[in-house]
Amino acid sequence: MLLLFWRIRYLGTENVPSSGPVLILGNHQSYLDPPIIGAGLDRQLCYVARDTLFNNRFFAWLIDSINVMPIKRGTADIGAMKMIIEKLNSGEAVVLFPEATRSCDGNIAEIKPGFGLLAKRSRATVVPAIIDGAFEAWPRHKHLPGLGSINVQYGKPIQPDHVRALSNEEFAAEITTILRQMQSQLRSSLGKPPFPPAKTDKAIANTPPTI
Q: The pTM is what?
């Protein structure tokens, strides 16, 4: 159904392991991100969304259709974090948007250190992912999405041993750098200019990742 409204291209799908625990960390541009980021893969993915979205009929229908776990935004939801680790330990693939909220300007905010802990405790392979075009299609100040082209690129997998060798702060800094480099290179290859520099860092301290 997504292809009826947006021209979507997937790059680097071979970088996502077909089995075993995988933690996909993607940038967050719009409400379109969760269904789009996984539609080009052959394996089922699990997602995390703030629990208040389940109060909206449309979003409740949308997130129920893509295997979503609710999480309390603005709190350290230990139960949800344990659930994510259990999913990964059982060999599933989980998608997180570690900026914690949708971008206001298209830029990627700095990732917070807590996401390294999830990867370490599960020994999951980490795959960075970039979505480009969803911000233009549905920026957060718009009530409804528009048409357009969207590109999704999966980066080179980061193996568990490498993740475990890093501190949580080092892991967060590395993922931030990788995502920003991927975004810059992808937009350049598409003939797009970079987003204007962010005035402030949009990351939210100690906020769990959500849709």
A: 0.84
Structure tokens at 19: 């089995």
Please answer whether residues 100 and 152 qualify as being in contact, where contact means their C-beta atoms are separated by less than 8 angstroms. no
- DSSP code at position 158: B
CA-closest candidate to residue 76, choices 108, 111, 45, 100? 100
Residue 197 lies in a domain: no
Q: Is residue 196 part of a domain?
A: no
DSSP lists the bridge partners of residue 49 as 70
The CATH number that applies at residue 74 is: 3.40.1130.10
Residue type, 39: A
82-114 pLDDT, tens digit per residue, is 889 999 999 999 999 988 777 778 789 898 888
Inter-residue long-range contacts of 184-193, CB under 8 Å, 24+ positions, other chains counted: 186/11, 186/130, 186/132, 186/151, 186/153, 187/132, 190/132, 190/151, 192/132
Is 199 inside any structural domain? no
